[in-house]
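It is worth pausing here to work through a concrete case rather than discussing structure prediction in the abstract. The textbook approach is simple: state the sequence, then state the predicted structure, then interpret. We follow exactly that order.
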Amino acid sequence: MKIKKVVNTLLISILVVSIATATGCSKENSAGKSRKASTTSKLDADQTLNLLLDEPLTLDPNDARNSGEFQILTQVQEGLARVFTDKNGNEKLEPAGAKSWDISKDGLTWTFHLRDYKWSDGKKVTAQNYVDSIIRLLDPKKAFSYAFFAYDIKNAKAYYAKKVKASQVGVKALDDKTLQITLAKPAPQFEKKIAFAALFPIRLDVIKAGGETWATDYKKHVYSGPFIIKEWTKNSSIVLKKNPDYWDAKSVKLKTVNLTVVNEIATQAQMFESQQLDVVQGQQDYTAKWIDEAKKGKFQYIKKASPSTDFIGFNQKTNGTSGIMGNAKIRKALSLAIDREDLVNTIYNKNYSAYGIIPKGIDLDKDEFRSKYEEALKKDYEAVKDDNEKLQTLFKEGLEELGKSEDLSKIKLVFISTESSSLDKSIQEYWKQTWEKKLGIKIELKSFGDFKAYAALRNSGKYDILLGGWFGDYNDPMTFMDLWITNSGFSKFFGGYHSKQYDSIFKKLDGEQNIEKRGQVYSELETQLVAKDAGIAPYMYLDSRYFVQNYVKNISLPSFGPSIEFSRAYIQGK
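Step two, the predicted structure:
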């Protein structure tokens, strides 16, 4: 993102929303104040924010994978940079743990100058803490899913593949306050990564002292961010308190943030309407109701594209319980059977139909990728739309290639998913009815309220189909492309897709800085993934429809990183 030598801030060209200090009006894609918004009126004595909690599974920044984990980690730890919004509502990458950084003319050497800041136990955050984090992220013995995130760094991939030593990875501490990262090749997307949790500093001494329970025991952690974790009741709630030793504590107005697990949408709505929750996403019939109320000034409404794609994953690692999921024609028949428009309009009543993996809200330089490149699966879908006979013929061709009986009524596929609400159950039934009606096959549903039970079955390979999704980590199509390369660390969670053809196309991006050429390669990769290989079946791009109480000021809803950036928010007029 940044291209000049000494960099302090950068505008990212995607619109996000920060709630302004004024209240009483409905906002849609509106702009707000920057992180140091003026507070001309007196703040409320009670500076408490109440939010929903997506239960984190770990507090280990190198091992974090889910949105709930990133939400917490970004508020209790401080990486090199943070994403805020400027006065026009545009995302801006601002220095955080690093007060500035330099980039060499060839784009390979990045030198970060750290500010004076410390951990919650009083020790200083050092450049070595960042080095330790990157080396640990890449440790092949750890096998962290996000190891690929650091592959831009010189010898990072080779170290993960056990071909070089850790000392040969292009990251070093020149002194306590100077971190140097050397890239293997110029990587236009690298700067967009530096605010991400996987690269946060760590304390190896604290990890060692914490033992096997360190990752999930908040009392064994030290914190460097705006807040610290004060309480954590598993599967229920987390309480954050302001970190008095944070380097920019004067800008943090909130004293307490309560995050609570609430699964049922009706309960979320009731809590929001009674001001027990301060920010919620619109769901089902509540969205239309709240939009009308927001127009009357009851609270604030923010809608924007969310850089996220939901998709179907197919078990290509073991070929599934059916033994047929390794066939591309069968996978494609299942993909093309999905009426994406109907799904979006009848079940969700929000979001956008998807025929590619790169969603709305992802830019390629100054333009949104989707505005320039056709969705890879759209033409194929139009060719068989509402034609069950063509879909069944394609499925039978796949069976024939496998030497299987072409009697579709004898085919049974196991579809696994998590279930935490009545909406989840409706979605599962929708998939079952769609495939049974259009393809003449049988679908066995297996749903789990407990994620660990779901993950155990998924990891055992005893399934055929699952639901997956990916939320962009930074504003570049690469964040949706590199997770599908062989042994990326994430494909295994979505069915285990891998392809020599995909890997070969991906290599064209190495060192390529021409925007048009990169765009063409991204489009080619998308076509290989979803159309030729049918490795996954994208069906929906997400949007974000947030409703915020009028008394909540200066809160940001960034497209990347945490869903809600509240470190500079405050309460006024409750």
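Step three, interpretation. The CA atoms of residues 338 and 403 lie 26 Å apart. The longest helix spans residues 422-439.
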